[in-house]
């Protein structure tokens, strides 16, 4: 950040909101950056190779995967979103706790790998591999279905479940997940020597 920007760490929203943020993968404390001079610049980075998505949440709150939030304008609120359907919580790839981002203003969140953004019409449904959903507008219905067909389950290589997203609303999909990336790296990691 440029020298004209100051940083202040605080427990934005108080202890209870801070604890809620912790459940959704964020810190108890938030840092507030303020520009005290014109033409100052601050750069944000994601924690994993991918894409940083900027969205105005004034139109509709969004639900994002755990730890997706990077930063936002002060008028944007970050809170915990609890997945209500047991199947979606267990098998949806995102768990029971997600992030709800609402208010007025722009939020920046991270997407692992490349970004695929879709605008779903009312009643339009897409099926996605579990874990590849980065975020969706609160108006989108989020659920899980079992992969159909014995051969598909046994030989499809995609797992037993698919996430279904039904419009209306926007969804942000990611082409990579941290677990699948780690799994691909395992064969290349050094093996401990047996002395």
Describe the structure.
- The protein is mainly β.
- It is globular, with a radius of gyration of 19 Å.
- 25% of the residues are buried.
- It has a six-stranded antiparallel beta sheet with strand order 6-7-4-11-14-9. The protein has a three-stranded antiparallel beta sheet with strand order 3-8-5, with no helix packed on it.
- The chain has four helices and 14 strands.
- It has helices at 15-23, 86-91, 150-155, 178-185; strands at 5-10, 30-35, 50-56, 62-64, 69-72, 76-82, 97-103, 106-112, 115-120, 125-129, 133-137, 141-146, 161-166, 169-174.
Compute the number of helices.
4
Q: What is the CATH superfamily?
A: Mitochondrial biogenesis AIM24
The coarse overall form would be: globular
Class from helix and strand fractions: mainly beta
- Regions with little confidence, pLDDT below 50 for 5+ residues: 86-93, 150-156
Name the features.
single chain; 3-stranded antiparallel β-sheet; 6-stranded antiparallel β-sheet; 15% helix; 14 strands; 195 residues; 42% strand
């Amino acid at each position: 950040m440029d020298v004209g920007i100051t940083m202040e760490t605080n427990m934005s929203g108080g202890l209870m909101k801070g604890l809620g943020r912790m459940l959704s993968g964020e810190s108890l404390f938030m840092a507030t950056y303020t520009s005290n001079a014109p033409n100052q610049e601050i750069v944000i980075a994601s924690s994993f190779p991918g894409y940083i998505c900027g969205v105005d949440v004034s139109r509709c709150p969004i639900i994002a995967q755990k730890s997706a939030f990077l930063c936002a304008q002060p008028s944007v609120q970050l809170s915990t979103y609890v997945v209500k359907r047991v199947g979606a919580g267990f098998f949806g790839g995102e768990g029971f706790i997600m992030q709800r981002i609402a208010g007025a203003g722009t939020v920046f969140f991270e997407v692992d790998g490349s970004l695929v953004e879709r605008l779903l019409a009312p009643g339009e449904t897409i099926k996605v591999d579990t874990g590849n959903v980065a975020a969706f507008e609160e108006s989108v219905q989020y659920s899980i279905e079992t992969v159909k067909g014995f051969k598909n389950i046994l030989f499809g290589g995609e797992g037993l479940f698919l996430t279904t997203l039904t419009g209306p609303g926007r969804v942000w999909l990611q082409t990579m997940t941290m677990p699948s990336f780690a799994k691909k790296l395992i064969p290349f990691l050094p093996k401990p020597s047996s002395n």
